[in-house]
């Protein structure tokens, strides 16, 4: 069951980098990002993204275009 598929509801939000089941290569220890680097994406049923502007940000989303 997924929110997007079953209910037509999309969700997107920030997550902690140590969140369980987040792609391990997005972890700060594995992926070194500097300011103005391109965002890094990973997909399964969710899209996970990491980028660095003034701080490092991680988010996940089930919204599909």
Overall description:
- This protein is mainly beta.
- It has one domain.
- It is built from 1 helix and 4 strands; from the N terminus they run αββββ.
- Strands 1-4-3-2 form a 4-stranded antiparallel sheet, with no helix packed on it.
- A hairpin with a 3-residue loop joins β3 (47-52) and β4 (56-61).
- The longest helix has 5 residues, at 3-7.
- The mean pLDDT is 76.
Number of domains: 1
Low-confidence stretches: none
Shape estimate: elongated
Mean pLDDT: 76
Sheet bearing the most strands, described? 4 strands, antiparallel
Give the structural class: mainly beta
Count of DSSP strands: 4
> What is the radius of gyration?
13 Å
- Fraction of residues in helices? under 10%
How much of the residues is beta strand, in percent?
Answer: 25-35%
Strand order of the largest sheet: 1-4-3-2
List keywords for this structure.
65 residues, mainly beta, 4-stranded antiparallel β-sheet, 1 helix, 8% helix, 29% strand
Summarize the structure.
With 65 residues, this protein is mostly beta strands. It is 8% helix and 29% strand.
């Amino acid at each position: 069951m997924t929110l997007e598929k079953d209910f037509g509801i999309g969700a997107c939000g920030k997550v902690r980098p140590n969140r369980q089941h987040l792609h391990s290569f997005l972890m700060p220890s594995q992926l070194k990002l500097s300011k103005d680097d391109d965002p890094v994406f990973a997909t399964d049923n969710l899209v996970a993204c990491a980028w660095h502007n003034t701080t490092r940000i991680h988010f996940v989303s089930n919204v599909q275009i």
